[in-house]
Amino acid sequence: MSLTVMKFGGTSVGSAERIRQAASIVQRHAQQGDQVVVVVSALSKVTDLILSVLNSARLGNGEVMEEGLRQLSERHEQVVSELFQGHTRKAVSADAQATLNHMRDFCAALKLLGSATPQVMDMVLPLGEKMSAHIFAACLNELGAKGTFVDSARIVATDDKFGDAAPDMEATSRQCREILLPLLQQGQIPVVMGYSGATAGGQVTTLGRGGSDYSGTIVGAAMDAHEVWIWTDVDGVLTADPRVCPDAVTLPEVTFAEAIELSYYGAKVIHRKAIWPTMDRGIPVWIKNSFKPEVPGTKIVESLPESPHPVKAVTAVTQASLVTLTTRRDVHFAEIFGRLFLRLGHEHVDVLFSTQSSSENSLGLVLREPDTEQVVRAIQRLFRTELKHGILNPVTVHRDIAVIAVLGSGMKGYCGILGRLFSVVARNNVSVIAVAQGASELNICFAVTNSRVDDVVRAVHQEFLGAEAAN
């Protein structure tokens, strides 16, 4: 009997209809004889609304806080009333209201204090997942399955980096075996809150950006599942953004390495850190569409046979900037740039790619636009003396650029990719601002002006992945 961990995202549990559809998917799979563990996000947009409520309370804005709490109550009450009747409706509604009352009490205290640490915020942010998990488990029971709510704090063990915690996989594996295995052996379907865990001392933590998918793969790896299925609102991993390239198609399979690169450079199907736990264990991950469960989706695996088509996908980060540092020619620039990268690591800043010219003693950092000011301030603090005495020239920032990434494990050692790529860009009369290729040859990244990014993505997709290229 194989075990499948199914993670349902916010849009997949965003309404009564979506929850019923998702629960039906789980029930049908369980009826085939497989064991299933479910991990759920909060209803779509609920976590953002909870964050807004907490911030309103912290700032003393009681009117906005109350309005947000009212919206949360109405949203969950509507879902409960559409899904359940009688005693079940009363019980599930009471669970949701108890959770909301806890949130209200917390917000009242926060309003008085006027501030909140990440540790304090982590106590409330996962309450959306708590309500959705209770609702999902009850829906499974209505369908004749045995759904059981499981608080993630009991099974997902983490460090104490509140707001962006990392899992302790050894402790998580032990806790999953102790709590989930007996439920599965009794024929039950555990429904686990996504996005959160707890420290060894029992303090609630959240897993940061991409945390809900991350919790799904953490549980999958901890349970040594046969597969992990991530249910979302897209058909899988596509060759490009279909809003830009209408002829984009779903990829049947990609490697873990390709999925991580796609995520890093703008594809929003799964967060890159969510891939790590299953990658370490070699557990396949499926990306599937809960709105169209009949579509096979994309399977993420350890490795694939060689393909005659070296390029697998084209993606883009549409809001980026280029920060350039130049030292005096008589300065040993490697030491200065080394200090900079160490600082960026401490501040957890992702660099999309960098370019270095030894002849000009210059370094270009291509960053996501929201990180730009943080990096410029870090440079000004770190090199205050060097900037004052002209050892380091004033920092220049080139904004309104976009980064395009051309990816595929088949590009390694394949001749002619760069020539074809930049011929396409040139034919579209677009100037390349910066370019880099990873040492693994898994991707080629280049920056262009933001206003032309869609034109270039379409042209590159047509060249390598269009109908003529496939023949």
Description:
The radius of gyration is 24 Å and the shape is globular. It is of the alpha/beta class. Helix 4 runs antiparallel to helix 6 and helix 14 packs across helix 15. The strands form three sheets. The protein has an eight-stranded mixed sheet, with helices on both faces. It has a six-stranded antiparallel sheet with strand order 12-13-11-14-16-15. A two-stranded antiparallel ribbon has the order 5-6. 43% of the residues lie in helices and 20% in strands.
Give the gist of this structure:
The protein is of the alpha/beta class. The protein is built from 16 helices and 16 strands. The chain has an 8-stranded mixed β-sheet with strand order 3-4-2-1-7-9-10-8, with helices on both faces. The protein has a 6-stranded antiparallel β-sheet with strand order 12-13-11-14-16-15. A two-stranded antiparallel ribbon has the order 5-6.
What is the strand and helix layout of this fold?
Elements (H helix, E strand, L loop, with lengths): L2 E6 L7 H16 L3 E6 L5 H13 L3 H22 L2 H28 L4 H5 L4 H16 L4 E4 L18 H17 L3 E5 L2 E3 L5 E3 L4 H12 L4 E6 L20 E3 H9 L11 H6 L3 E5 L8 E4 L11 E14 L6 H14 L4 E7 L4 E7 L3 H11 L1 H5 L7 E12 L9 H11 L6 E4 L5 E7 L3 H13 L1 H4 L1
Parallel strand pairs: 1-2, 1-7, 2-4, 3-4, 7-9, 8-10
Antiparallel strand pairs: 5-6, 9-10, 11-13, 11-14, 12-13, 14-16, 15-16
Helix pairs in contact: 1-6, 2-3, 2-4, 3-4, 4-6, 7-8, 11-12, 14-15
